[in-house]
Specification:
Blueprint (H helix, E strand, L loop, with lengths): L8 E5 L4 H12 L3 E6 L4 H9 L10 E5 L5 H15 L4 E3 L31 H22 L16 E6 L12 H16 L2 H6 L1 E8 L5 H4 L2 H4 L11 H13 L2 E5 L1 H6 L4 E5 L5 E4 L3 E3 L18 H13 L6
Helix pairs in contact: 1-9, 3-4, 4-5
């Protein structure tokens, strides 16, 4: 079910930068309060939170809650912050994520730098951030929506009182690349997870959807030289603001204009209206496309390509041939 944003409240993890900051800003512009849940805020995020503080005249308010999404207690606490500050949450975006960072990468096994994954803890941080955190946050959100606390001013979720959970997948959830196998695995998993929860929309009024962005100009890329070199002059950037607009549309609209199935295969520009409902995954490149569960043609090219992968693959093969990898 679609959800009107004015007067509502959202929890957004990773809101300190990138796509999640753009989404939080979009929500605030539509008079929706936001809990910024992140380890820290970049300067531009600090400014936005300050402009929407409880003492400001802004029609929507923002609060920052320091959150390590790998810690389940932190995830639970951000819902208590939403209850205390705004009387509950209506929209939840477990958006925090990383892209095969050197400190938690398949190609840099645990126990040796640059990996910070510990052999004793038996965890991959990338999987905890990109997959376990969205799953646990979704559990908490559903519980929050169906069992309002004493501090909440919200009614129980239902088709008449809808709620929304929006995930950030990726075009990586439709493809496979050698350079980022754990990242690829998490995004394939998010797609399956979102589709599995589709029935919640009709039965309980809880719409679970996802965007699948292409190459987005965020710190995930620009602050990582080893990632930035994968993008060449042949590739096109998409802006975080454009992705955020589509995330907002998945929350508040019943239909979205997307590429027609024939357009992806033929390269034409024909479009169609697609119904937004639970399980909907929206590819966001230069164009918009519904990602189908079966017989999907794969990502469109505009804003979705990374043409420097071949050189990165060669580096991986060289590293493996040197001997001692993983020892």
């Amino acid at each position: 079910m679609a959800l009107s944003l004015a007067g509502k409240t959202a929890i957004v993890t990773g809101a300190g930068s990138g796509i999640n900051l753009a989404f939080a800003s979009s929500l605030l512009s539509r008079h929706c309060n936001v809990v910024f849940a992140d380890l820290a805020l970049r300067p531009e995020a600090k400014e936005i939170v300050a402009q929407h503080s409880s003492s400001s005249r802004a029609p929507a308010k923002a609060v920052f809650q320091k959150t390590d999404v790998r810690q389940w207690q932190d995830l639970a606490y951000m819902f208590r912050v939403a209850d205390r500050s705004f009387g509950g949450a209506d929209i939840v975006c477990p958006g925090a994520g990383v892209y095969e960072p050197l400190w938690s990468s398949f190609w840099y096994p645990p126990g040796k730098p640059p990996s910070t994954d510990s052999l004793e803890h038996s965890r991959y941080a990338e999987l905890d951030i990109n997959l376990v955190h969205p799953i646990r946050t979704t559990q908490l959100a559903i519980s929050h929506f169906l069992n309002p606390s004493d501090a909440s001013k919200r009614l129980v979720a239902s088709p008449a009182n809808p709620r929304s959970i929006i995930h950030i997948s990726s075009v990586a959830g439709q493809v496979a690349v050698l350079v980022a196998p754990m990242y690829i695995a998490t995004k394939h998993a998010i797609n399956g997870f979102v589709r599995s929860l589709a029935p919640l929309d009709k039965e309980l009024g809880i719409r679970v959807t996802a965007v699948a962005p292409g190459v987005i100009k965020t710190p995930l890329w620009t602050d990582a030289p080893e990632k930035l070199k994968l993008v060449t002059e042949k590739d096109e950037w998409v802006t975080p603001k454009f992705v955020a607009e589509q995330m907002t549309n998945l929350v508040e609209r019943e239909e979205i204009e997307v590429q027609a199935p024939s357009a992806t295969a033929t390269g034409t520009s024909s479009t169609r209206m697609a119904k937004v409902e639970g399980g909907f995954i929206l590819e966001v490149g230069k164009k918009l496309r519904k990602v189908e569960a079966f017989n999907d043609p794969g990502p469109s090219r505009d804003g979705n390509t990374v043409t420097g992968l071949e050189a990165a693959d060669k580096e991986i093969f060289e590293r493996l041939r040197q001997g001692g990898w993983g020892q």
